[in-house]
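Homework help board

Subject: predicted structure for assignment chain

Our instructor gave us this sequence and asked us to write out the predicted structure in token form, then describe one feature. I got the tokens but I'm not sure how to describe them. Can anyone check?
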Amino acid sequence: MEFKRSAVSAAVLGAALMSGSALAGVSGNVGAVSEYVFRGISQGSGAAVQGGVDYAADSGFYVGLWGSNISWGPGSAETDVYAGFSGGDTVTYDLGVTYYYYPEEDEAGTDPTANTVEAYFGLGFGPVSVKAYYSPTYFGATDPSGDDITQLYVNASASFPMSDSLSLDAAVGMTSLSDDVNFGYETTDSYIDYSVALSKAIDDTMSASFSIIGTDLSDDDPKYVVSLSKSFDL
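My token output:
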């Protein structure tokens, strides 16, 4: 099957997952990207509007809701619900679970459904973090015998300050699947994605970034993505 998966934005999760007490309370975020790309795979042919709401407790517990428009198999909307615990000092940790929900697909009664649960665990040290994600079902993808395809994704990222308001961010990840999936460019059971970005804090609540994102899939050209986001307390 041809398959393009989607998931909660790394920028949204990165803002909330590695510091439990720092974000205690309820906050919101809204933004726009020139192209919604996740793990190197484009989720639509144009710009996307995205936003969410997060609650973080002093204990390190957090829960959130995030959404975006998309344009692949499950329809035109994606809603992600996630919860977990984060904390630590010199070494930080983060573990939790995300549920990816596609309301239009539910209305259509699609089987198998792309609605998916994914668990994750990560560690951070200074500017560097490593995180692993596992899902027993890969967004509705099945093997030739009809069994669900499982996924393991491992990502390493780093952020290097260049000034008080500018940072250079880089990440590389690998998706490993239990069987082949057609990603449009290539049919494979694994691929590598990468990104390099310049992020600029415009003020305490608004930021912008320019990213170069790509994969090692055949004929998949790098994507150039501009984003603007704003956060606020509720």
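Reply (TA_rk): Your tokens look well-formed. For the description, you could write something like this. The domain at 10-233 is CATH 2.40.160.40 (Porin). That's the kind of observation they're looking for.
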